[in-house]
Amino acid sequence: MATTIQIAVRTLVEHVYRSGSIDSKFRSQSTLLDGTRIHQKIQHTYQESDQKEVYLRTDLSFKDLVFTIDGRCDGLLFRDGEVIIDEIKSTSHHLEHLGQEGLPVHWAQAKMYAYIYAQDHQLQEIFVQLTYVQVESDEKKYYKQCFTLEDLEIFVHEVAESYYPYAKLLHDHRKARNNSSKQLVFPFESYRAGQRKLAGAVYKTISEEKSLFVKAPTGIGKTISTFFPAVKAMGEGYLNRIFYLTAKTITRTTAEEAAERMRSCGLCMKTVTITAKDKVCFKDETKCQKDYCEFADGYYDRINEAVLDIVSNENSMNREVIETYARKHTICPFEFSIDLAYAVDAVICDYNYIFDPRVSLKRLFEDQKKSTVLLIDEAHNLVDRGREMFSASLKKYSFLQLKKEFKTVNKIVYDGASKINAWFISLKKNHPEQSEFTLEQLDEELVELLTQFNEGAELFLQKENAPNLLELYFQVNAFLKIVELLDDHFVIYGEKNNNDITLKLFCIDPSKQLQKMGKNYRSKALFSATLSPLSYYRDILGGQEDDYSLSIPSPFKEEQTDIFIKPLSTRYRDREKTKEPIASMIHALVQNRPGNYLVFFPSYQYLLAVYEQFKKEFPGINTLLQGAGMSEEERELFLAEFKPNQSETLIGFAVLGGIFSEGVDLKGDRLNGVVVIGVGLPQLCYERNLIKDHFNQKEKSGYDYAYVFPGMNKVLQAGGRLIRSEEDHGTIVLVDDRFLQRQYRELLPLEWRRFTVI
Predict the structure, then answer these.
(1) How many separate domains does the chain show?
(2) Of 304, 335, 596, 716, which sits 20 to 30 A from 480 (CA to CA)?
(3) Can you give the pTM of this predicted structure?
(4) Phi, psi of 659 (to 5 degrees)
(5) Do residues 530 and 713 touch, judged by C-beta distance below 8 A?
């Protein structure tokens, strides 16, 4: 029996006919809106008997597959006995660029609609018209051809023949994937305590199309316990794609290893890892322009062959594999990974590819979302990342600089920058005494000025290269996008800094926007060892009334960890006088219990002060120091020093909430103890106080939301580096008198509450 594959007309022809280069030279951001406006304008001129947005569908058999092809044609016109399929295209280019014939991909789209209509209505011939409209001048150009049904049948057969190898490859792979996932057993000899419960909860959540919030202890094996049930749900037909989302490179590696382990147990699954563009770019400068980069030049001429090649030969498409094939086919490795995301079973990537409105994978259609699950690792990180994604700011200085640069270059850009600079000056004058202040609402005049500025910038950038203008254009565009989202989840504030002033649209509560961006996916599972308190994370990450929650107790015995509390004040005002007691305490600890230790400090300044004190008093002990802005290679060298069964003590001094306090896996004897200095509270600042006030007004505990919960999360993450398996033993020392206060003590895990005060 032939297998049916559903595909949209546009997706099909774009796959077969795509050609040309990646070119990130300036493109107007209003293209989509212009396209909609122009379509409506042309359709408005149709005669009464004409039809617009006509839904067409056909089944096309080719070899052992049946393609169900559908879509909406822009116009169906009836003129003097002729039937005409009209395809409307807007362009910012001059119409002479289209040459004598128009673009092959546009003809292909229109011909596909013509074939379906002619076949349905038994027409032996039908006309096809391409209507091009230049967005600025409204100038129009028409191309029109007559095709016989026989011509169109030959054309459609050629399209199917070109698409077939890719469709067949995916179809055969998915069949093998589903069969193998049904056979797959849990890829370890046995479940750890809590793993079966977590896996069962994830499967139930997917089958019932719900969301799940999970607090599961470090070391339980959360990655395999969430990935495995999602794969099993694939075999049952619930899912077609898994997104494993994470904030850090190190957790991406864990997800890759989990996929590899399932493959080694017989699973047939293809995964791709998306690495940030700047990291994988082969060129010295990340400039996606065909005249600068050979990997961008002609990218679309070569991409189909490259995708077929890698998907036929590889299962794990990680950074190294993608780079190898990208060089082989001379294509951009970043865009290659994005194209592969639509062809594979599981995508391992950063949160922003789903949640950030500026970055998200736009080609993931709504029907595909319905068969996709989001597995969101270390979900506590999504709070601040969400705030970042939905906030935007502008500085007065940027417009002042541009005003100077364009004074003799372009009057429109100069005037636009001047007016916005003047608006900022008046904002400053209206708040003479305050260095920071909030605004009740955004001035409509500013929105108008920014819109005009971008329109002027577009005109200039279409003809000239101007890096500073381009950068500010994108900033303004991002700002205007956030303007559309403004509601009571946002605060608008100004901040004066010397002569400059910043205006920020600050997303205080990202819950609504995260919910919106995650909408229509079949299921979401958000998990972390430190999703505590669960009620807070459900609230701020956009949880719904009927979402599931699960809290899994630690599988490790209390005896595995000795917990000590040293009640010193580490408040900012007391830090100078605590240098010596902390240095002495660390020394006493390692003398009594030799081994490898990580000591975490609330700030880099405090870290350096204690580190220097320690080196002065105890020069004979091996120490490591976290450097500012360490490269990935430097981080790995730092962690490599933590070797098992060392004869000498080693102490790593690191920053709480930094690169070594989360996602780091030092198993067994590689780490014997962790010291956490302070309760991790973020520094007192205007923005944090805005968060506090906002949630107080909502009758929630604002201080906890702004300071205590984020701070204690860092403490729990740092302590979680220690016990990673049933065999691990170690010591945790918490240094701060506040750990003895009820508010903080109740946020400690149960297994930490049997502590000794020293």
Answers:
(1) 5
(2) 335
(3) 0.91
(4) -65, -25
(5) yes
